Amino acid sequence: MEKRRLGKSDVQITPILMGTWQAGKKMWVGIEDADSIKAIRAAFEAGITTVDTAEVYGDGHSEQIVAEALSDVRDSVEYATKVFANHLKYEQVIEACDRSLKNLKTDRIELYQIHWPSGVFNTETVPIEETMSALNHLKEQGKIRAIGVSNFSGVQLEEAAKYGRIDSLQPPYSLFWRQVEKDAGPYCIENNISILAYSPLAQGLLTGKFAPDHKFDPQDNRAKNKLFLGENYERAQQALSKLQPIADRHQCSLAQLALAWLIAQPQSQAIAGARHAEQATANAQAGSVQLSAAEVQEIDAIGRIVTDHLDDNAVMWNF
């Protein structure tokens, strides 16, 4: 898989990244460590060398699973992890990074990201200048190679960029969830900031595998995902039926088509999670689906069956 430059940094990443929220187990149902390890390894063997995790995914468990899967090929992979909103004071950032380095069994992290803006989830408000100061220090030490932010609005991104180079934004972004295009996206394109889209398959909705009457376990975070509720879910099913002929034309799955559309957008890469090795391999194969400009527009229009009816709230869940 041909790599792309991460922002203006010297880090190269794959257009499809392996997402590992599920490997942390917390907020997921039926996850086994052995399956997670096999999935991460299968992604690597299929050409996905960039892995995204976070300290909050199972309180470090996801990071530890990533290390277990990839430590023997460490020099051939890029690690991206995140510091959570409750650790954004200067010393807390330094300590959190050291914990992540230990969990990942490594001496450097290619991309270190602020997971959520300060103050969310009832966390203490910390000035972005203080957090960025710690991140800049970690970068000077060589512990991290690039700084990113996640779940930041365009205004928050611009504010953070006053205090240091931001090389990536990680927003929720998929064919069915596109608020970033109206908000921070133009700023990212103008300033050469990579967009690392999480939930690029709308938490599995874009795979087409969920029946119209599907119900999630209440412990599954998707039970609260707005896209799986009411009329949004009905519209999504309509859109999927219109996407299927395009996927058939390319002899690919709906999921691969959705990923191919996303990585064809300006500055955009897709973070795709997988519970099993077969899913990880299939996600990687999306990198070879070549869409024409006309097909990208056709897919775009179908996606709007869903997105035209959503509000501007960028958070995907009714937590």
Task: List the keywords.
10 strands; eight-stranded parallel beta barrel; alpha/beta; 319 residues; TIM Barrel; two-stranded antiparallel sheet; single chain
Number of domain modules: 1
Could you give the order of the helices and strands? EEEHEHEHEHEHEHHEHHEHH
Instruction: For the largest sheet, list the strands in their spatial order.
Output: 3-4-5-6-7-8-9-10
**Classification by helices and strands:** alpha/beta
Radius of gyration: 18 Å
Task: Please tally the helical runs, counting DSSP H or I stretches of 4 or more residues.
Answer: 11
Which word captures the global form? globular
Termini gap: 36 Å
Topology, please?
Elements: E1 4-5, E2 12-13, E3 16-19, H1 33-45, E4 50-52, H2 61-70, E5 78-83, H3 90-103, E6 111-114, H4 128-141, E7 147-150, H5 154-161, E8 168-170, H6 179-182, H7 185-190, E9 194-197, H8 230-249, H9 254-263, E10 268-273, H10 277-285, H11 293-307
Parallel strand pairs: 3-4, 3-10, 4-5, 5-6, 6-7, 7-8, 8-9, 9-10
Antiparallel strand pairs: 1-2
Helix pairs in contact: 1-2, 1-10, 3-4, 8-11
Briefly summarize what is shown.
It is built from eleven helices and ten strands.
